[in-house]
Write the structure tokens for this entry.
Amino acid sequence: MILPLIFTIIFIIVIGSMIRAGFLGAPWVPTFKKTTLASITLAKIKPGEIVYDLGCGDGRWLKRAASLSQARQLIGYEISILPYWLAKLNFFISSNRSRLRVLCKNYFFEDLKDADVIYCFGLPEVMNKLEPKLEKELKPGARLVSYAFKLPHKEPAQVLRLSNHSQPIYLYQY
């Protein structure tokens, strides 16, 4: 009798956190491998840089970026419980685990001033809210790579499409 109740509570917490994440940022939608590779290439991560993924989901973008770059630190923010724990597991089994970290925090309340590269896949409402934060906090030379959705007022330095039917990947320079 108690076991079904415990599973029900866990289920409600997990689903509730995913719904909350969908309202605060974007629902968890894993990015295709080709898109991940293209966005990492577009970011041009240099040795020693600090990389953030805002709403990192299961951490696959950061894990791939760690394997393809010499970034000093790769940090993901994720507020949904299930993807957060999947990212923790993903990073734990990675050969690059010493450079990878995931935080169960809302990135809107975190200081992003140390970022050299930021990756995000946020809905238009998120991008509207994110743009002034980035303008205020990012240092000169920092880069934002945004998949599918652009910032409302800043012009991208580059727009990449993998095909005529694919979503764009935007690169912004600060």
